[in-house]
Amino acid sequence: MTIRVGSAPDSWGVWFPDDPQQVPWGRFLDEVSEAGYSWIELGPYGYLPTDPGRLGAELAARGLSVSAGTVFTALHHGPAVWESTWEHVGRVAALTRAMNAEHLVVIPEFWRDPATGEETEPGRLGPTQFAHLVSGMDRLGHRLREEHGLTMVVHPHADTHIDTEENVARFLHATDPDAVSLCLDTGHYAYCGGDNLRLIQAFGERIGYLHLKQVDPAVLAEVHEQRLPFGPAVRRGVMCEPPDGVPALPPILDAATSLGVDLFAIVEQDMYPCPPDRPLPIARRTRRFLASCGA
């Protein structure tokens, strides 16, 4: 059993395909390699080059490989959004597979604007929308495997409909294990009040991927008290550098190891926006910390 540690554009303050506040993609690739990582995620589609030949050459020059691509979906809206969803997901999946990766991280769409906090729809799904979410995710997972050879790992995320212990368990009980695996993001699950170790114990067979992240409990308390949306919470520093926050990562890595399967463990420290010189020192320290944990 192997845990393969990597990082992601998110840890360099990258949330969008193109944004003047973000570091250029070449600098991200240089620095993630310099920090000691050999695996990365693609991040938002279009941030890194989308031509497989060019991207492959840029990665090879730096000794990097891709663990997964990432997409957002709003499948709870039902069949009306399927074609547009697949059009985008298919592009990301094709690039992901061309990079010899085997996973696609799927994040549900936000129910409130991550920047302004405006509620764009109810925060809890009704029976019809939940049924759409389940059937859509099952369909997407099967199609990704059949057409691209990818394992879909669904990412519980703050300010989405798959967030708390209750909602994650409800989702996992309802979906097809052959189509839907879980990307456990330790920080987002803690942000939403979940117990990571309890989730691993209860649904270990569904976990196919890890995002390693911590939250600052003092900032998190302010976030909940003030009902801040995710974007302002990140700007306030709710996601912090390990090992300064919660949950403790060594017990989670031990529990993940006990599952007896190969897993990627990708570091994600949400920092959008951030000064361009901030990510690299944090990335170096985080890699050393994880090495001290045996990862």
UniProtKB/TrEMBL annotation:
Q: Which SUPFAM superfamilies match?
A: Xylose isomerase-like
Name the Pfam families on file.
AP_endonuc_2
Q: Which InterPro entries match?
A: IolE/XylAMocC-like, Xyl_isomerase-like_sf, Xyl_isomerase-like_TIM-brl
Top-level taxon of the source organism: Bacteria
Q: Xylose isomerase-like TIM barrel domain spans which residues?
A: 29-290
| Protein name, per record | 2-keto-myo-inositol dehydratase
| Protein source organism | Streptomyces radicis
